[in-house]
Amino acid sequence: MYGCEAWTISKQTQKKLEATEMWFLRRMLRISWTAKKTNDTVLEEAHTTRLLISKIRKRQATFFGHVMRREKLENLVTTGMLEGKHSRGKQREKLIEGLADWLKAGKSLEAIEATKDRKKWRTMVANAVKQGT
User: Fold this and answer.
1) Which terminal CB of the chain, N or C, has fewer other CB atoms within 10 Å?
2) pTM of the prediction?
3) Cβ of 45: how many Cβ atoms within 10 Å?
4) Is 68 left (phi over 0), alpha (psi -120 to 50) or beta?
């Protein structure tokens, strides 16, 4: 989890993280891979929900809020407002787009504006963590 605040989590990366988390749970509970147990029953036995993705997203959101309130070079880099040419092909997903989807903020500009008010930003993050998406 070191440095996860700067990761961009695509659908493929999210699936890999969820698979890794499930592997960890099965190892901790000593459930053999030959035992035909579904992931839902493993989660019920562990008395937990999927925590890894929500913990990463929460750390990203708090870091993002901190960077956006500072309004320095990190702000420009994170928002992608630097001058220059775009690379060829499909553009990579930005951190802000993933967070806006997770927070259900609609557009990324709405998420940026919400960071200005620390209390509003914290409630948005807390609500997203409660929903467990």
Assistant:
1) N
2) 0.71
3) 13
4) alpha
Sign of CA dihedral 20, 12, 8, 85: positive
Distance from CA of residue 51 to its chain's centroid?
Answer: 11
Among 76, 81, 68, residue whose Cα is nearest residue 115: 68
pLDDT at 118 over 70: yes
Domain residue limits, the chain? 9-50, 53-82+93-133
pLDDT tens figures, 22-53? 999 899 989 888 888 888 888 888 887 777 88
From the CA atom positions of the chain, what is the Rg in Å? 18
109-131: burial string, b at 16+ Cβ within 10 Å, e else: eebbebbeeeeebeebbeebeee
